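Hello,

Our lab assistant flagged a job as stuck in the queue for most of the afternoon. It eventually completed. Since we weren't sure the result was trustworthy after the delay, we are filing this so someone can double-check. Below is the sequence as submitted and the structure that was eventually returned. Let us know if re-running is recommended.
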Amino acid sequence: MKILLYLITTFLVSSQIFADISISASVDKNVVSLGEQITLQVVVSGDTTNIPQPKIPQIQDFQIYSSGRSQSISIINGQVNSSVTFTYILSPNRIGEFEIPPISVEYKGKIYQTGPIKIKVEKSVSSPQKTVPQQQNVYQGKKRGVFIETFVDKHTAYVNEQITLTFRFYTKVNLLSQPQYSPPDTTGFITEDLPPQKNYYTIIDGERYYVSEIKTALFPTTAGKFVIGPATVRCAIEDFDIDDFFSDNFFRRFFSQGKEVVLKSEPIEIKVLPLPQPQPKFFSGNVGKYTIDVSVDKQKIEQNESTFLNIKISGVGNIKSLTFPKSLIENFLGKNFVIYDPITSFDINKENYVVKGSKTFKIPV
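-- returned structure --
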């Protein structure tokens, strides 16, 4: 029995000794135009469930927003394998060639790191102005059978302030196919869907229309002038007119597949203002209406003993982009505490089509 226990203990110790992790980083594109965004994904994996948080270095001339994390755990023949993907949104502030420095993670006293990633930011190329096609209509010269529109609640906003984009699809004729919706181009904005989709009837010029409505929250990442592109809908509708009932065209149209129409909304111009100057000393770029709650896991600790400092930021705004106020915490605690990178979690609520919620930073100190 002692030999068996010894073998089991040796196996467990050996598994911990040889437990190892790996870290990798990738971007969705290495060349972008000013105003576009880059998605950075950092994957940390290993044969342990205690995956550490990577250290994201300061990247000059870029704004960085955390976009959450996802984790997968598998156990095969008693071997635990865990992988956590950390996602970040990068928004360049100027044109040039840049390098994302190595991203590191510390595990059991050993440092693991990725290689650097080169990024090239080019001047935004203004697309040649195109004439937005008139929305095709099955009833030529008569009231429209189907049409769409997009609009925003404001045309001027500050960086990281919510703009609500509304899309509406109106129809008073039978649809012969499922509408194919292509959302507008929103380069220069972080987007958040605002469910649920609304469906209702409305009266326009005495005609009853069925309306489908979709809302999206837009958060501008940099100051400047931007254009929200046209939304597009393709669908097939009845190509039938009561005046054709006694004509040969009636029978051809009755047995036809209908008429395909392509609907496009008008582009929308948005002016994004820079944040007011001068900014507070420890301002980190977060915009919204927030409250902060601070607590610790232990009120009393011994020397060289650690505890967790919990910072919960709640309110209305782009919750995912809230950044850890490290410089503020360091200034508050002083040099008597060593502050490590936090474990983050967030809870988002989109009631009444306003993005709100909370983000919690759990910091070992």
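-- support follow-up --
The delay was a queue issue, not a problem with the job. The result is valid. The chain has three helices and 23 strands. The domain at 2-122 is CATH 2.60.40 (Immunoglobulin-like).
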